[in-house]
Amino acid sequence: MVVSFVLVHGTVHGGWCWRFLVPLLKSAGYEVYAPTLTGLGSSSHLLHEIKRISLNTHIKDITNLLFYEDLSEVVLVGHSYGGIVITGVTALESKRIDKLVYLDAYLPFQGENEIDLWPINQKKQYYADIALGIKSRPPIEPSILGITDPIISKWVQERLTTHPYSTYEDPPPSALSYTNQESEYISRTYIHCVRGPLTSWMKPFADRARKLDWNVQTIEAGHDVMITHPNDLAQILIQIAKKKSEDK
C-alpha cells in the first residue's frame, strides 16, 4: 500500500504553500494531497458566500478528502492553524491515520480554541476587531513567517488571503483526549521551527509535545519552512513516514 501524505495549511495560506515540498515527497514514492481549506486560497471567493465558516467546516474539508479518496495509512501534517484542524480530524477519523505531524503548529488541550492559545496582544486585536465588526484576520507579512528572499516574499504576499475569525472560536472535538482505541496507536511528531519572529510564539506547543512524550524535532528555519526549506523538511517527513509501526 502506498503511504499518503495529507498536508493541511495554516492561517491565511492555501494548498499553494506546499508547492515546493509536494514534488519532493512524490519523487520519494508517496502520494501527496494538499487541499485548500474553505474560504482560503483558491476558494477565498467563498469567504463571503458562506454565512459562517467554522472550524468544523475545515475539519470536514479534510475528513471528506480522506473518505472520498479512500485513504488509509495517512501521514497527516498540520501547519500552524492546521494543528487545530488535524486534532479534530484525528478525533473523527483516527482509523485512517497512521502518523500525525504538527508542523510548528498549535497543539490544543481539551476545550481550547486557537484564540485561547494566542499571545495577549493578538487576543486584544481579535476583540477589538470583533467590536468593530471585522470578521477576518488580515494576511501576515512574509517576514514574520521567516521569508526574507524578496522574490519568494512577493510570490507569497500575492497569495495570502484573509482568514475568518470564526474558525478560531471553536475548540476541536476531543483535543488530546481521544477515547477511540485506534487513536492510541497513532505516532505523533512535533516539528518546531527555531528561527524567525514566531519561534517563541510556537515554543509552548513544542514544550507540550515533549511533556506528552511525543517525538519532537527542531529545524533551523522560520515558520513557513515548507516554502523556505522544502528539502530539509522533506527529509524529516520521509524519515517519519518510514518509521515502522512497532517503533511508535
How much of the polypeptide forms β-strand, as a percent range?
A: 5-15%
Regions with little confidence, pLDDT below 50 for 5+ residues: 177-181
Q: Roughly what percent helix?
A: 25-40%
Would you list the SSEs in sequence order as H and E? EHEHEHEHEHEEHEHH
Q: What is the CATH C level class, in words?
A: Alpha Beta
Please report the distance between the alpha carbons of the first and last residues.
19 Å
At the fold tier of CATH, the topology name is: Rossmann fold
Largest β-sheet summary:
6 strands, parallel
Give the second-level CATH assignment, the architecture: 3-Layer(aba) Sandwich
Rounded to an integer in angstroms, the radius of gyration calculated over CA atoms is: 17 Å
State the gist of this model.
With 248 residues, the chain is an alpha/beta fold. It is built from 8 helices and 8 strands; from the N terminus they run E-H-E-H-E-H-E-H-E-H-E-E-H-E-H-H. It has one domain (4-247): Alpha/Beta hydrolase fold, catalytic domain (Rossmann fold, 3-Layer(aba) Sandwich).
Which structural traits does this protein have?
248 residues; alpha/beta; Rossmann fold; 6-stranded parallel β-sheet; two-stranded antiparallel ribbon; 8 helices; 8 strands; globular
Give your account of this protein's structure.
The chain is an alpha/beta fold and 248 residues long. It has a single domain, classed as 3-Layer(aba) Sandwich (Rossmann fold), CATH 3.40.50.1820. The protein has helices at 22-27, 55-68, 82-93, 120-131, 150-157, 199-211, 225-228, 230-242; strands spanning 4-8, 31-33, 74-79, 97-103, 136-137, 163-164, 187-193, 215-219. Strands 2-1-3-4-7-8 form a six-stranded parallel β-sheet, sandwiched between helices. A two-stranded antiparallel ribbon has the order 5-6. The longest helix is centred in the N-terminal third of the chain and has 14 residues, at 55-68. The chain is globular and about 50 Å long. Residues 177-181 have low confidence and may be disordered.
